[in-house]
């Protein structure tokens, strides 16, 4: 099911997505406030390689994977200095690539049928003392009420978007997902708009 759902996700270029406009500044701040033993980074669900290139420009040695063949094709063509490969989050990626000081996954987990396996893979790639930065569209009571009252629920849930969103997280449910992995040290940030109507939330994960 992962291959059917995600390889149909088509990329037409290597340009940043609209979400990068509000996610990258937050990611840069997190990086600037953190200390890394090495500057190695991994992008889980790298798409067209835009975020990999962003991290490379910040001085990281970067690798990334995505099951979208069109996305990785653009990444390899436009950013040949980066290691980007076609692979899925349900594979044993840490055995294949190793562990990294920084693991990033922006707006990916909501596309996955099996978020528990995705989260396990995400955490397995983080080196001791490293951090993970994961983002996903934010859902909370007031935002959901506003969507219902505005009549925008259909466009928000993207039912007709091939390869679109199939999981919808709140801070509570995403925190519970990491607690299942015995990770309680998770910081949540809400980005894009004011917090109660945030476009996305960013989880900063620091395994023991």
Describe it for me?
With 208 residues, this protein is of the alpha/beta class. It has one domain (2-205): Vaccinia Virus protein VP39 (Rossmann fold, 3-Layer(aba) Sandwich), CATH 3.40.50.150. Helix content is 37%, strand content 22%. It has nine helices and seven strands. The protein has a seven-stranded mixed beta sheet, sandwiched between helices. β2, α4 (69-78) and β3 form a beta-alpha-beta unit. The model is unreliable at 1-7 (pLDDT under 50).
User: What would CATH call the architecture?
Assistant: 3-Layer(aba) Sandwich
CATH superfamily name? Vaccinia Virus protein VP39
Strand content: 15-25%
N to C succession of SSEs? HHEHEHEHEHEHHHEE
SSE blueprint:
Elements: H1 2-7, H2 20-32, E1 40-44, H3 50-57, E2 61-66, H4 69-78, E3 83-86, H5 93-97, E4 100-106, H6 115-124, E5 126-137, H7 141-150, H8 153-157, H9 171-179, E6 186-191, E7 200-205
Parallel strand pairs: 1-2, 1-4, 2-3, 4-5
Antiparallel strand pairs: 5-7, 6-7
Jot down its keywords.
9 helices; Rossmann fold; single chain; 208 residues; alpha/beta; disordered N terminus
Overview in brief:
This protein is α/β, with parallel strands linked by helices and 208 residues long. The chain has helices spanning 2-7, 20-32, 50-57, 69-78, 93-97, 115-124, 141-150, 153-157, 171-179, and strands spanning 40-44, 61-66, 83-86, 100-106, 126-137, 186-191, 200-205. The two termini are 32 Å apart.
């Amino acid at each position: 099911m992962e291959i059917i759902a995600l390889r149909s996700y088509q990329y037409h270029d290597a340009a940043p997505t609209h979400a990068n406009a509000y996610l990258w500044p937050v990611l840069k701040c997190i990086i600037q406030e953190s200390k890394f033993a090495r500057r190695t980074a991994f992008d889980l669900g790298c798409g067209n390689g835009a975020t990999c290139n962003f991290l490379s420009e910040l001085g990281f040695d970067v690798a990334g994977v995505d099951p979208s063949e069109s996305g990785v094709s653009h990444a390899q063509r436009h950013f040949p200095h980066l290691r980007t490969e076609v692979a899925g989050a349900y594979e044993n990626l840490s055995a294949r690539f190793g562990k990294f000081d920084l693991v990033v996954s922006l707006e990916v987990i909501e596309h996955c049928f099996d978020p528990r396996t995705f989260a396990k893979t995400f955490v397995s790639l983080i080196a001791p003392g490293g951090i993970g930065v994961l983002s996903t569209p934010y859902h909370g009571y007031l935002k959901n009420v506003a969507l219902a009252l505005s009549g925008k629920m259909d466009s928000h849930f993207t039912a007709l978007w091939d390869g679109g969103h199939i999981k919808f997280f709140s801070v509570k449910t995403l925190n519970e997902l990491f607690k299942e992995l015995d990770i309680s040290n998770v910081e949540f940030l809400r980005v894009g708009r004011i917090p109660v109507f945030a476009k996305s939330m960013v989880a900063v994960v620091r395994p023991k």
